[in-house]
Specification:
The complex is a heterodimer of chains A (343) and B (298).
Chain A (H helix, E strand, L loop, with lengths): L1 H16 L1 H21 L8 E6 L19 E6 L3 H8 L5 E4 L4 E5 L3 H10 L16 E5 L6 H32 L1 H6 L5 H31 L7 H22 L6 H18 L11 H7 L3 H15 L3 H25 L4
Parallel strand pairs in A: 1-2, 1-3, 4-5
Antiparallel strand pairs in A: 3-4
Helix pairs in contact in A: 1-7, 2-5, 2-7, 5-7, 5-8, 5-9, 5-11, 7-8, 8-11, 8-12, 11-12
Chain B lengths: L2 H5 L3 E10 L2 E11 L4 E5 L6 H8 L7 E6 L2 E2 L4 H4 E4 L11 H9 L8 H7 L15 H13 L5 E5 L7 H16 L3 E6 L2 H7 L2 E6 L2 E6 L1 H9 L2 E6 L13 E4 L2 E6 L2 H10 L8 E3 L3 H9 L5
Parallel strand pairs in B: 3-8, 3-9, 6-7, 7-8
Antiparallel strand pairs in B: 1-2, 1-4, 4-5, 9-10, 11-13, 11-14, 12-13
The chains are: A alpha/beta (343), B alpha/beta (298).
Amino acid sequence: MQKFWAVFVARNLEFFRDRSTLIFNLVFPIVLIFGFAFAFPAGGGTSFKIGVVGSPPAAGAPADLAFLHYKHLQFVPYAEIAVPLDRLAHQQIDMVIDFSKAEYYVNETSSNGYILERMLSPGGSAASGAQAPAVFAKQTVSGAPIRYVDWFIPGIIGINILFGSLSGVGFVIVRYRRNGVLKRFKATPLSAFEFVSAQVLSRFFIVAFVSVVIFMGTDLFLHFRMAGSWALLALVNALAVLCMISIGLVFSSRIKSEEVAGGIMNLITWPMMILSGVFFSLEGTPRAMQIASRIFPITYYIEASRSIMLDGAGFAAVAGDLGILALMTVLFLGAAAALFKWE
Amino acid sequence: MDETTSALPILEVRDLHKSYGKVKAVDGISFAVREGSCFGILGPNGAGKTTAIEVIETIHDPDSGTVLYRGQAVAHSFKENIGIQFQDTSLQEFLTVRETLELFSKLYPRPRPIVEIIAACSLEEFIDRDNRKLSGGQRQRMLLGIALVNDPDLLFLDEPTTGLDPHARRNFWRLVEGIKAQGKTVILTTHYMDEAEYLCDDIIVMDHGRIIESGRPRELLLKHFGEAVIRVPEAAVPAGASFSCPAESADGFVSLNCADTDATLRELVASGIDLRGISVERRNLDDLFLKLTGSGLD
């Protein structure tokens, strides 16, 4: 335990005394959060997203349904009406059409919903309060909008976890291997397990610390929506950090070159950032993209975090995401243990 | 220590082999190291010195061969009994010298008190300095300190003074002498022949992974060159003169490899040779290596 603790403390001192690294780890995510909060004060931009339940009418449908063929409208299918209605209440989507009941739903406080309703009913106007044709019956929901930054914050924390873990463990171990630090430790009674576990715990502590500072620091000004349990959110974050660290351990288990490590990091991080729903919702994206996103652990982290923060999801609702993160962590740690070499 | 124990080598290497691909870095070397001695491994770059000691240190596995520590095959606990100063070492950054010593100290079950390490390696003046901000000599002293944190019986120093100025090298030698005085065994690889002659009790000379000569430095020089070389200008040597010791002519001088300098000088006087212009030189290990391999140490 003394050996483990000595290496753990030394690694933490190395991180916290390296001011440039510390500042980069803290400042970059905070700037990104405030940037998005400023750019997207509410809602997710100017595109229109419509949730649909059931199948639209076949060819020969009433002319009013030409609406369905308008450009720049995104139709997202849902199996059950409850899910899109919840999204609509938080203005994460702009309208819901239930073809099976011939109903449409709008949030009357949503500007996008108002415009879409006019498109669905081209003859009407806001002033006259004209309704959509009788083919669809109007229903309304209410609820405050969720700002883009509320939706985005789990993604930012996820990116911080991703880079902090991969570079802080993976890249650092490769550097240690290349410049001989690992060789020096190998010459002591320190075991590979003691060394690696100290690195893991140190990085876990550092990433958790940085994530809390980023979240709490920006929350002071932006007051993020938090509908669920803090403890559950902490558990999701802890599992995500461990999972990312274990990926870092796998790719650093043999590599000696920092250039190769950098290439592999890019190979891992960029697809994760683009395909895991960090910046935009995966709802309505091509099915292949949605399937590809299931490969990445950060997808499960973001799903679970958003569910907890935005929808107040409980343990049962995110148990699947937690289970997959835990399984991936065990698999990656096992692979890292089997592959690790001092040199 | 009883006689039986003291007669047992602290380290014995038997028929050690290590190859990298087709390159035989270590090609069947065997030697024994006496406890309390300083054992030098000499040779040019690529001779296999570093590979040999890193295999002995258990950093690398041998292809074949045996390493015995106090008569027993090396076990995991071997690392607790040895200290190592690598040729090239990086350390964790942003730590002071004291923190670095404390880090390594905590990796061993029975560490030596840090204050003793600081005194033994003269680290006082920079003990609280960032370990990245040390001069070459200071850094080598710190690395020596790290190698001593576990109070090892056997210390490996791999080219510890390479790149140091003469003053720093001399300071380092004094530290090694102090370590020897404590009865510790030192295995030293070096490029510097003066260093080997000054510090080492026994040496081996390696080339192309093999040992090409071994013994005590003084005995090896006597064996190959005699006690000294007396250089006499050729012009002072009468035609047809013969000598009792081996003689070679080159560059306008006759070089006499004499086993007894006094006797040879008397012989020259008796032969009526003018002693003005002669020089008496002691050959060194560099000369020995040149003779053994046909190339100089680099």
